[in-house]
């Protein structure tokens, strides 16, 4: 096993052991490419979403939020092109019958291929490079012809007379379609004027072909998307600004810059002006974290055509009427989660032992402060610790822990990335001071209880 794979396996194991991520339906043998978020996972995930929402909605006067439904009119997916064109090229290993995405197999072999190529184009490249590509599962070099496989997930939602096999309702394949079809509602009900954005965080569903990539590629996942509506002549200016802002966002939430890079799309869909992905150096290599795309007016034009509703914008000052162009920023919660944990995962030597610590940025840590009574069988210590916990929990996500000895409690908090541990000992009972232990330096300092809350809030923020 390579070192990177080893690190990845350790991260997956820590995520399960410490309650970040569980395989779905585990007691029934699991359910492929679906995961559940445990007690610390849901906190980290919420903190990522909150950082994104602050940056994209709260701190901006020109962007508003939206929460559109997962079920939408089936015509939307025809208009968007998903019913016909939302597919990946799939192949099957003839020896072990495992299925793979051909573009990913080619990519891993260092051959460029794009998921948007036609079936014939991709089969030609696949044939030409046959010798280079072995099955990641059984190493055989015998694959079936690649076929396009539609990624939309169908449901049987509908009334009893509807034949849903002919006329299916889909679980949405991306959140942004909910934004496009609500563009007029937002325009008419809020005070936005072009240029403006609509932001949304929500679930999306895709029939993905996956290959042991943990939460990187799942069939149910969350997206954080923002569509920015602009005048056609200003599209590329806004696009460049959004590229800069989105790059900075990842630095602000603590990712190391050397683990980020830009990837320019060479094979653009016909309507797009330019598209870049921000890639992160995951333990399995640089892969997409977020897409920033200049999409022209394709989305609104298509929805206007299919719905027969005018989706023009009337400039209140110049009187000009036009269909806005769109700059899209589209990120995944789980991929950001995995990037953050991969960046933070650290093993260091400490007194002859290996200490595992998640050096998460404080604002993303699931638990900010852990409160310990030194001994659990001393009621006066427990009572005092509970009182401190009850006070701190009003402003910070805290955890009370009296299990095992203090060393063991530190190890557990290090592994879930808690920046500070507060211990209540016998000296506390004499002079109302406690010790604070810092996760990264492991240094301890004594501080008066009356200063504790302020001190911790300042350091966490
Ligand atoms: P990929 O090429 O990796 O399949 P994509 O280009 O299809 O991704 P988009 O449709 O642009 O992805 O979706 C925007 C973002 O949503 C991606 O950058 C990613 O962070 C996230 N995302 C997409 N598909 C998945 C998935 N199956 N599981 C988890 N996150 C996903």
TrEMBL record:
Major localisation: cytoplasm
Keywords: Aminoacyl-tRNA synthetase, ATP-binding, Cytoplasm, Ligase, Nucleotide-binding, Protein biosynthesis
Gene3D superfamilies: Anticodon-binding domain (3.40.50.800), Bira Bifunctional Protein, Domain 2 (3.30.930.10)
Cellular localization per UniProt: Cytoplasm
Protein residues bound to ATP: 206-208, 216-221, 288-289, 332-335
Complex and partners: Homodimer.
Protein function: Catalyzes the attachment of glycine to tRNA(Gly).
Name the record gives this protein: Glycine--tRNA ligase
Gene name per UniProt: glyQS
């Amino acid at each position: 096993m390579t070192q990177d794979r080893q690190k990845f396996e350790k991260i997956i194991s820590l995520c399960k052991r410490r309650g970040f991520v569980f395989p779905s339906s585990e007691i029934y043998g699991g359910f492929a490419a679906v995961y559940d978020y445990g007690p610390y996972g849901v906190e980290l995930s919420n903190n990522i979403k909150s950082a994104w929402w602050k940056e994209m909605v709260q701190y901006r006067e020109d962007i508003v939020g939206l929460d559109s439904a997962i079920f939408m009119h089936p015509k939307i997916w025809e208009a968007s092109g998903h019913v016909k064109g939302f597919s990946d090229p799939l192949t099957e290993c003839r020896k072990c019958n495992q299925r793979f995405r051909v573009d990913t197999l080619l990519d891993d072999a260092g051959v460029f291929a794009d998921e948007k190529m036609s079936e014939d184009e991709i089969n030609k490249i696949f044939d030409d490079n046959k010798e280079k590509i072995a099955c990641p599962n059984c190493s055989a070099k015998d694959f079936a012809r690649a076929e396009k496989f539609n990624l939309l997930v169908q449901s049987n939602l509908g009334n009893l007379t509807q034949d849903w096999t002919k006329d299916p309702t889909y679980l949405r394949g991306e959140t942004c379609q909910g934004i496009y079809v609500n563009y007029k509602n937002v325009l008419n009900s809020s005070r936005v004027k072009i240029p403006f954005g609509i932001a949304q965080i929500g679930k999306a569903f895709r029939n993905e072909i996956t290959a042991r990539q943990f939460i990187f590629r799942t069939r149910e996942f969350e997206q954080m998307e923002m569509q920015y509506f602009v005048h056609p002549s200003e599209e590329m200016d806004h696009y460049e600004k959004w590229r800069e802002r989105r790059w900075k966002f990842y630095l602000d939430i603590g990712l190391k810059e050397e683990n980020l890079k830009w990837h320019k799309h060479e094979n653009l869909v016909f309507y797009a002006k330019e598209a870049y992905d921000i890639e992160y150096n995951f333990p399995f290599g640089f892969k997409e974290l977020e897409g920033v795309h200049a999409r022209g007016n394709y989305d609104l034009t298509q929805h206007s055509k299919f719905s027969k509703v005018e989706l023009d914008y009337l400039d209140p000052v110049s009187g000009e009427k036009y269909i806005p162009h769109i700059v899209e920023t589209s990120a995944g919660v789980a991929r950001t989660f995995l990037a953050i944990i991969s960046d933070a995962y650290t093993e260091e030597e400490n007194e002859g032992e290996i200490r595992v610590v998640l050096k998460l940025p404080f604002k993303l840590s699931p638990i900010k402060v852990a409160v310990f009574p030194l001994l659990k069988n001393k009621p006066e210590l427990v009572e005092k610790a509970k009182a401190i916990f009850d006070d701190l929990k009003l402003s910070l996500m805290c955890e009370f822990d009296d299990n095992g000895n203090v060393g063991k409690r530190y190890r557990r908090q290090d592994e879930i990335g808690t920046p500070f541990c507060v211990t209540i000992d016998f000296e506390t009972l004499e002079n109302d001071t406690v010790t604070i232990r810092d996760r990264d330096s492991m240094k301890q300092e004594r501080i008066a209880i009356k200063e504790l809350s302020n001190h911790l809030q300042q350091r966490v923020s």
